[in-house]
Amino acid sequence: MKVVVDVEKCTGHARCNVSAPAFYELDNDGYNVIREREVAPGEEAAAREGAAACPERAITIIE
Ligand code: SF4
Fold first, then answer.
1. Ligand 1 atom having least distance to the Cα of 31
2. Rounded distance, CA 44 to CA 14, Å?
3. Which of 4, 23, 30, 45 is deepest in the core (most CB within 10 A)?
């Protein structure tokens, strides 16, 4: 499982980070710094919660 963030869609709402701060790291302007990241065992719920919280649907979960 991995997460892909579409930088063209990310508008810096930071809601992914609010939902799952241990998984979604932001830059100083509130944009998601992840471009592509493997989801380690135990991180699945955090990855999904952060993706669901993104109002821009910028985060895709690839199973
Ligand atoms: S919630 Fe979505 S738009 Fe906001 S920082 Fe996270 S990925 Fe970007």
1. 5
2. 19
3. 23
Q: Residue 41 Cα, ligand 1 centroid: separation in angstroms?
A: 23
Domain hosting 31: range is 2-62
Residue 47 neighbours by CB distance under 10 Å: 23
Residues contacting residue 32 through CB under 8 Å, at least 6 positions apart: 5, 7, 10, 16, 17, 24, 25, 26, 58, 59
Q: Profile the chain (63 residues) by mean pLDDT over runs of 10 residues.
A: 98 97 97 98 98 98 97
Domain at 31, CATH number: 3.30.70.20
How far does the centroid of ligand 1 lie from the alpha carbon of residue 15, in Å? 6
CB 56 within 8 A of CB 10: yes
- Sign of the Cα torsion 45, 43, 32, 27 reads positive
